[in-house]
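FAQ: What does the model actually see?

It sees only this:
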Amino acid sequence: MKIARKDNHEVDFSTLNLGDVFKADGGDVFKDDGDIFMVIEEVESKKGGIYSAVNMETGKLAIFYTGEKVVPLQAELIVN
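And it is asked to produce this:
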């Protein structure tokens, strides 16, 4: 898989749509600056946690909140 980054400006996470790809701004200790995520439909874990995104490189689920700043990205999936 190739990942080409063309960073944009920060926006509120709540402005993104399902399937949108973005990077974390690094303001959270659990989300490294530059990690790439995709917005997913909210999923509740067995322990009651809510997840709203998936890390595109690790597959781990993450939560992003309304008001949290992220950088939207244009992403391309190439299947060989």
